Amino acid sequence: MFDKATYVNRRAKLKELVKSGIIILFGNNESPCNCPANGYSPFRQDSSFLYYFGLNRDGLVGVIDIDNDIETLVGNDIDIEDIVWFGSVDSVHDMAESVGVKNSAPMKSLKTICNDAMRLKRRIHFLPPYRHDIKIQIFDLLGIHPVQQKEAASMDLINAVVKMRSTKEQQEIEELERAAVIGYKMHTTAMRLTKPGVTEKYISGQLDGIASSYGAMVSFPNIFSQHGEIMHGCPSMAELESGRLVLCDCGAETINNYCSDNTRTYPVNGKFTQRQLDIYSIVEACHDYVLDVAKPGVKYMDVHFAVCRLMTERLKELGLMKGDVDEAVAAGAHAMFLPHGLGHMMGMDVHDMESLDQINVGFDAETRPRLDQFGTNCLRMGRRLEEGFVVTDEPGIYFIPALIDNWKASGHCAEFLNFDMLETYKDFGGIRIEDDVLITKDGCRFIGKDRIPYHPKDIEEFMKNN
Ligand code: GLY
Ligand code: MN
Ligand code: MN
């Protein structure tokens, strides 16, 4: 939690941007796993509620009445039974006070606040809900059916939140640096533990332990798999096999809920084959290219397509692609290998603000994504970069047997792809290299002082000596 002034100032700016009406920011509730007393752990607060109210406790709602300049923290004080089981916590009044909110009220008063506002036909702003309990709460309070709530959410509030959360404050950057330190420990531990015979799940479990012992938790479920071609592949009980690559995409959340998100791909036995290096060096070049060109004013969509062209050029040299590079990328042929975007915003959420919809977070009037083309429809970030943005740089090359079969059967992009050669790569897996990048005044830099090894020589040396 930052100091009181941080939250007071953020809410003041939010009021200025939204201008009028009443803002309701729902905090999250505990989420039962298999019974109410056994919740998914640890509790995760909603990031926008945290951003404006800073309080990491379940069962709270923040109300900002802009027109009357009244801020209220809504929530129920705990009773003696709660204290017996969970210990004592601050009263809602004291919690409100700690973040500069003058008023507090019990949860039942939220219905009255909403009824009064609706009677006066005042604008009620809320963000698109993503948890079912909150959808039910909104239905009860405002009478808007869950299927209509995304549409009914306030664009003015969404735009204001995106504007504010996109540009990271210095104290947020420091928190992201702390997440990177934990992420570094996770990744180097995974590299150290990677040996033939060890299971994917064992290593992934060790990473969970590191994340929760130094911070709040992992920033998303670990991807640790020899099937690197599966974008979000879960770790399995499979044993690591010499000769194969393993892809590790994982990150940590600090105790204050700021994230890291890195990916490394390395050989199980610690030594790349020439065939693996041929593909790896292309991903490495694409990854490093971003650092050279990302800066304020540059559209991330343009960087994405420049990477696609570089990748296509290099895959042509290997014989996996053919034809004119620009035409191939325009046709979306590169998506056979790179079916996702170059990166996404990152911050308190690993895909920052994704619950507000990527179209509102990563795009604007001049950068609408093409939704009609496989691969391009997955871009999460396209708009012009600004100082203080944090984005991921995560190119990859994947050989997805089902996709190869699918495109080969339909002849999709056949003029740009060498299907005979692709057949011989069906057992290859996939490679991704990912780092988090802060956009600075005139360029960019990695988040994280220590680099998780990613140049092949550095990986081989690390795996030999650790
Ligand atoms: N961890 C998922 C991603 O890199 O976007
Ligand atoms: Mn990742
Ligand atoms: Mn990512």
Give me a quick take on this structure:
This protein is of the alpha+beta class and 466 residues long. Helices cover 40% and strands 14% of the residues. The structure holds glycine and manganese (II) ion (2 copies).
Describe this structure in words.
The two termini are 36 Å apart. The protein is built from 17 helices and 17 strands. Helix 1 packs across helix 8, helix 9 runs antiparallel to helix 10 and helix 12 packs across helix 13. The strands form six sheets. A five-stranded mixed sheet has the order 6-5-4-1-7. The chain has a three-stranded antiparallel sheet with strand order 9-10-12, with helices on one face. The protein is 40% helix and 14% strand. It is of the alpha+beta class. The structure holds glycine and manganese (II) ion (2 copies). The site of one manganese (II) ion has 5 residues, from loops.
